UniProtKB/TrEMBL annotation:
Family: Belongs to the ABC transporter superfamily.
Task performed by this protein: Part of the ABC transporter FtsEX involved in cellular division. Important for assembly or stability of the septal ring.
Organism domain of life: Bacteria
Protein's name in the database: Cell division ATP-binding protein FtsE
Domain spans labelled ABC transporter: 6-229
PROSITE patterns for this protein: ABC_TRANSPORTER_1, ABC_TRANSPORTER_2
Native organism: Bizionia paragorgiae
Gene Ontology biological-process annotations: cell division
Phylogenetic lineage: Bacteria, Pseudomonadati, Bacteroidota, Flavobacteriia, Flavobacteriales
Amino acid sequence: MPNPVLEFKDASIFQGDSLVLSDVNVKINKGDFVYLIGKTGSGKSSFMKTLYADLPLKSGEGHIVDFDLKTLKEKDIPFLRRKLGVVFQDFKLLTDRTVNDNLHFVLKATGWKDKAEMSKKIESVLTKVGMKTSGFKFPHELSGGEQQRIAIARALLNDPELILADEPTGNLDPQTSVEIMEVLQEINKNGNTILMATHDYALLLKYPSKTLKCDENQVFEVVQRKAQV
Ligand SMILES: Nc1ncnc2c1ncn2[C@@H]1O[C@H](COP(=O)(O)OP(=O)(O)OP(=O)(O)O)[C@@H](O)[C@H]1O
């Protein structure tokens, strides 16, 4: 039986009072890798923000990792976000501390106490993104691609049920984008569910997967044509 980690029914997404997307009917099952595409301003980020409760769901139904977005209370938001791993275009690492301290900070903020367990977890997520030896570096000592690997490692810390990646390759050159995509593919192969907003059609062609498109205030699934040989 498919196991939905995200399900929207007849939902509308708003920015303040302005309607961005309507009649949103979307389902993502455990283990899926799903792209979210669409022109600038078509609503991808607004949709993502609704998923991690940065925007409220005012109309329709939305369930994500066992939380009901319609009835979600302010106090529940940190618990929802603990079950999500969010990766942004601009990495959002804390620049005043090392990679290890960035990761430690998140573990501490999410209730981890045992020092040995924390170190083990940090080593494990850094290994998953190929950055095992970079724990003592500061973000400014890393390339953009390396910083994004650390941001992905940070997203993995609490074993999220869904990873939301909003333009994760948006600041990276094509070769580095492919390397980041390989990391995301590997994580997906190991069972993580990923929703990735992107403008990068080259990645879609190279790594075809279920694709949702935002256009004219709607979200719909697009069928990808096979790449021409
Ligand atoms: N903070 C905000 N307040 C009001 N309106 C906003 C806000 N952020 C975005 N919007 C509007 O919501 C609509 C959707 O924007 P959104 O950022 O979701 O699009 P997007 O597809 O993610 O675009 P991009 O690819 O440029 O990030 C646009 O019309 C935009 O002007």
